[in-house]
Amino acid sequence: MKLLNTNAFIDGSWVSADETFPVFDPSTGDVVAQVARSTEALTRQAIDAAEAALPAWRSTPAIERAKIMRRLEQLLHRHEDDLAALLTREQGKPLGEARGEIRYAASFLDWFASEAPRQYGETIPSPWRDRRLHVIRQAVGTAAGITPWNFPSAMPARKLAPALAAGCTFVLKPAEATPLSALAFAQLAHEAGVPAGVFNVVPGAREDAATIGGVLTSDPRVRKLSFTGSTAVGKILLAQCASTIKKVSLELGGNAPLIVFDDADVDAAVDGVMVAKFRNAGQVCVAANRILVQAGVYAKFADAMAARVAGLRVGAGIEEGTDVGPLIDEGGLKKVEAHIEDARGCGATVRVGAARHERGGTFFQPTLLEGVTMDMQMANEETFGPVAGLTKFDTEEEAIRIANDTPMGLASYFFSRDIGRVTRVSEALEYGMVGVNTGAMSTTVAPFGGIKESGLGREGSKHGLDEWTELKYVCVGL
Ligand code: SIN
């Protein structure tokens, strides 16, 4: 396998550890690689390196940092096939999706390379005759990132790119299931000319997460944490960061509603749901988790969905024509089964699937359930699997009430061709993101993030850089 690295990357060098942990191919269960278990000492070493590199990196002109970022972007494009193969191997998603993810990752380098030289300050009209008021924007400092397994390239890129653009140095802890993409990234960043210590990667086993996370969140030299993952872990990290008042951005769990109104283009709605639900086998924070369909189009919509779900091809990500790959691990599979069992026990009916796939392992049949109600587990927690559940509703008010009745607030979607409704419902949904007549809205150029228990801060867009910079007010006496 090309671009395979198995050691920690600290201060521009590969650093081995006394112990290793296995990374599995979820489509076969085979061990792909044994990767270094970063200890407390290695994590501190990475922070030491990031601190040492900080003065030179933050004082490098933004235009120079941008040039290095563009070289990294080009390397990601040049190695797209190898990076996608590695990603599919450790994560399981279809190769076409993996290629798309590498391009998505590269787009963060492109966007933030352009934003780097545009960190403008302000001059404020002074209320005093004898003083002038300025605001400058500066890098937060040494920063840490903790990323999930479902997007092993795009999530590190979504954090690394603004960190580099702002002039921060960065220590990344990738998910234990998928560290290889992040380590490949480190290799390419080094080749692109990112100076030693500016980007460090400390992989670790599941058992090491608390240790590595504990160091990253308690070391006072780390001035910022950016985390993508579950709300439960986000709460722990936020509490840990409180002791040193770090700047924190959190992209946490969702429970996305997707509403299909009677006035929707039903074919477009079905297309939208297929993307919003089955991308990456449903293992996506912004996946549609509650599908609400108005009574007038319910039967037509359910029939069309059933045909599409039954037609999805399950297979290993590297196989041509695969729509739905394996789930990441046995835990993911068990959660899907538990949600289906609970839903059936509470009265939901199976229209398609609802069982392990004949290929075995962690493959699961794409599933469509009907009669899902809001007291069921699958309506209250992310299923994170290829399971769509339909709920019938009558009025717009009812749909909005159901959609907002959750502590989560990441993504939401609805389908309607009525311009008044589009405006009303967009404003009424209590979510950080609203997709109207589309099931795919993630892009580098728009602010990605949630409200309520789905997170703090935004990634991507011009706002994404704010999370990695501080404003400094300078008052100059004449
Ligand atoms: C996520 O699941 O956290 C990210 C997916 C995306 O960027 O669309």
Describe, in plain words, how this protein is organized in 3D.
There is one protein chain. 38% of the residues lie in helices and 21% in strands. The protein has a seven-stranded mixed β-sheet, sandwiched between helices. Strands 9-8-7-10-11-19 form a six-stranded mixed β-sheet, with helices on both faces. Strands 5-6-20 form a three-stranded antiparallel β-sheet, with no helix packed on it. The chain has 13 helices and 20 strands. It starts with 7 loop residues before the first strand and ends with a strand. The longest helix is centred in the N-terminal third of the chain and has 21 residues, at 95-115. β8 (169-173), α6 and β9 form a beta-alpha-beta unit. The structure holds succinic acid. Succinic acid binds next to loops.
Number of strands: 20
Helix percent band: 25-40%
How many angstroms separate the termini? 63 Å
What is the average per-residue confidence, as pLDDT, rounded to a whole number?
Answer: 98
Distinct helical segment count: 13
Major pleated sheet: 7 strands, mixed
Structural class: alpha/beta
C-alpha Rg (nearest Å) = 23 Å
What characteristics describe this protein?
about 475 residues; alpha/beta; seven-stranded mixed sheet; 13 helices; globular; binds succinic acid
What's the gist of this structure?
By secondary structure, the protein is an alpha/beta fold. The chain is 38% helix and 21% strand.
